[in-house]
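pasting DNA-binding transcriptional ArsR family regulator for the record, 109 residues
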Amino acid sequence: METVTTTHTAALARLGHALSDPTRTRVLLALREAPAYPADLADALDVSRQVMSNHLACLRGCGLVEAIPDGRRTWYRLADPHLAPALDDLLRLVLAVDPGCCGPACTCA
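structre below
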């Protein structure tokens, strides 16, 4: 078994932060299918271009996506090829969720 380092912990924390927002999660899931331009992502996810820009900046800061210049435009893709299969694995998870302990009305804290 591989030793867990602070680098591993930080990477998982960044992924958790990214997945904590539904729009960022949808962006990551869209980019696991194919790279995309921000305007196309905004249209597909029904958010404004400014909202998309903010989420992409966050995902870039977390090291999860990268911006690729393309003339006067920029497209985005997942920053690591291991991320798409990891997201696929997460989608296959089935969790029993207690509605009173998960989400906006969480009483666990």
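The mean pLDDT is 91.
Residues 15 and 62 are 7 Å apart (CA to CA).
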